[in-house]
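To the team - WT7 complex, inputs and output below.
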Amino acid sequence: MSGEEALEAQLGEREYYRPPAQFVGQANATDPEIYDRFEDFPTGFEEWAELLDWDEYWDEPFDGSEPPFFKWFVGGKLNASYNCIDRHLDERANQTALLWESEDSEEVRRIAYQDLYREVNELAAALRELGVEEDDIVTLHLPMVPALPITMLALARIGAPHSQVFAGFSADALATRIDDAGSDVVVTIDGYYRRGELLHHKQKADQAVESADHDVDNVLVWTRHGPEDLHEDASWEDGRDIFIEDLVAEHEGDRIQPVSRDAEDPLFLMYTSGTTGRPKGCQHRTGGYLTWAAGTSRNVLDIKPEDTYWCAADIGWITGHSYIVYGPLALGTTSLMREGAPDTPHKGIIWEIAERYDVDIFHTSPTAVRMFMKWGEDIPAGYDFDFRHLTTVGEPIQPEAWKWYYEHIGHGDAVIVDTWWQTETGGHLITNLPALQDMKPGSAGVAVPGIKANVYGPAGEPVAPESGQAGDLVIERPWPGMLQTVYGDPERFIETYWSQFSDTNSDDWRDWVYCPEDGAVYEEDGYFRILGRLDDVMNVAGHRIGTMELESAVAQVPEVAEAAVAARQDDMKGEVPDVYVIPREGIDEEVDIPAKAVAAIEEEIGAFARPNAVIVVDELPKTRSGKIMRRLLENISNDENLGNTDTLRDPSVPEQIRQQVHGD
Ligand code: WT7
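Output:
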C-alpha cells in the first residue's frame, strides 16, 4: 500500500467517540468558554499564569516589540523550584511527590513533598558552595532515577539553567552539548539498569570531558548503589570528580532561599536534532514555560493533586521535563517515574504497577501502544487497573492502535488524548481538552486555547479545510511556552522556525509565523491530522533523529566514500533509518562496512539511533548535478513504485539498488 492509499484507508474509517460521562463529570476543563477567553490575546493566557505563585506580578503579559524574540509576563518574578515544591508544603508535605519504580529491585522510593524539599535544598546548597552561580548552565547526563528531577529542581532553585542530555546519548554527543552550552559542571551517575543489565555510565562523561573543547571544572557523580561500586573502567580524577553524596553530606539540613527569577530568565536548554549541522539548544524561559506546562497539565492531562499520574517517557526528552517534572509537580500531584524497559521483568509490568498504585492517568507513545497490542490483550487483562485518562504523544497514532488502546487499556471508559507538540513548543499546542471535544482516532485534535494553528500551501496561503489538501502546519501567533531562542545562535532561531512564512523585515509580531516543519491536514471539523516531518528529520519511536547527523556519523568510517539515509516505514517504531553506503575504491574486501557504520552511529549519537539496515551499494541515485535523491532511496526502502528516473545521471541506478534490496 502506498502512503496515499494508506492515508485514504485511514480517512475512510474516521469516526467520533464521545468522552465517557464519568470523565466529563469530574474534569478540570468543562467550560467551553475557555476558548473565547484565550482568544483575548494576550491577556487570556494570564489564566494559566495565575496557576503559579509569583514573587512579583508581571507588568505586561506580552511584549512583541522585537519579533521573533517575544517576551512573556514581562516584569514578573518567580522560582520554578518554589512552585514545584515549597508552595505545596502547607497542604501536602507528606504526600508523595515522586514515586520511583525500578526494574532492578523491589525497592521503591516514595519521595514526599517534604523529602523533595530537603533533598533539593541540600543539593542546591552544595552546588552553590561548589561555585555554581545564577545563569551558569549545568549539563546533566542522567538516567531515570530520582537524582535527575532532584538535580533539575536544585539548579532551578539557584537560578542555574540545566541542560539534560538523554542518558542514551554517547560520549561524543554529550561533548558537543557541553561545548555548545559552555558548561563548567557536568552531572552524571555511576550506572543504571536496562533489561536486567547494569549499564556503566560515568565513563561517558569522562570521555566527553576529555574530548570537549570547553574546560569542565567538575564532574559530579550520583551513585546508583554507593561509591564502592564505581566501575573499574570509569576513571576518577581527584579534584575534578566529586561524589554528590559527599558533597551533600556537608549540607545536611541546609535551606536555600529560592532565587527570584525574571519571568524571561532561562530555566533550561533542551537540545534537538535539526536538518543540518549540530543539534540546536532550545532555550526555555521560566515564566512562560512553567505557565504552559502547568496550564496544559491541568486542562489537557486533567491532573489533580490527589491523582497518581504516570508518564512513561524519559525525563531526558522534553516530554519528561514538561510532563513528569514541571507540569505535574507545579500542580502538586504524585508523579510516577520508572527506570527500566517496559518488558522487564515481564510484559505485564506496566499494568502490574498501574494496579499496585491505582494509577489514574497514563501517558505514553503510539510506539508503546503498538507494542502492547503486539503482545496481546491477554496480558493487560490479567491486571486490575482503572485509568480515567490515557495520553499519547510523539507520533501519529493509527486508528487501529487507538481503538485497541481505548478498548483493552481504557476499557471504554477512559478518554484517549493525542497531543501534538515539540521540544520547541514547551507543551501541547494541538490536542483536545478532553471533556470538551469528541475523540477522533488518528487526528491529533483541535488547537489548544489561545493557539492559532493553520495549514499553509507552498506560497504561504492557507489551505481551505474543505479541500482536504495537506500542507505545512503553522502557528500564527506567539504563545507563552514557545522557545526563546536557539542558545547562542539567534540567526539560526529565525532561519529555522520563522523564515519560511514570515515577513522577516517586519517589526509587527502579527507578520511572524512559526513553522514547526510538520505536514498536516486541517479538517473541516477543526481537527488537525498530523502527517509527519517535512524536513530531513526522522521520527523513530517518537524520537527525532536528523538524517544529516546519521550520514555524517557514517561518513567518519574511513572505508565509506558516501552515505545517504532513508526513512523506512516500520509497523512498530513508525520510522527506522536505512543507511545506503558506497565503499571507497580499493579497500580491503574483508572489512565489515555495515558493522563499522553501526558502530560509528553508536559512537557519534548513541545506540538508540542504530539503523535498521546498512546496504552497501555501487552507486547512489543522483541528479545530473550530483545531488543524492533520497526520495528514491525512500521508495526503495518502502518497496514503493520508483516512478520516472529519466532525469538521473544514471537512470538505471535505482532499479539496481531495488533488486539488491528486494530481489526481483
Ligand atoms: C515532533 C517533535 C512532543 C514531545 C515528544 C517529541 C512529532 C509529536 C505528535 C503527535 C503526530 C507528532 C512531530 C513533531 N509529533 N507529537 N501527537 N502526532 N506527530 O518531541 O522530539 O521535539 O519531536 O514529533 O513530527 O514535530 P520532539
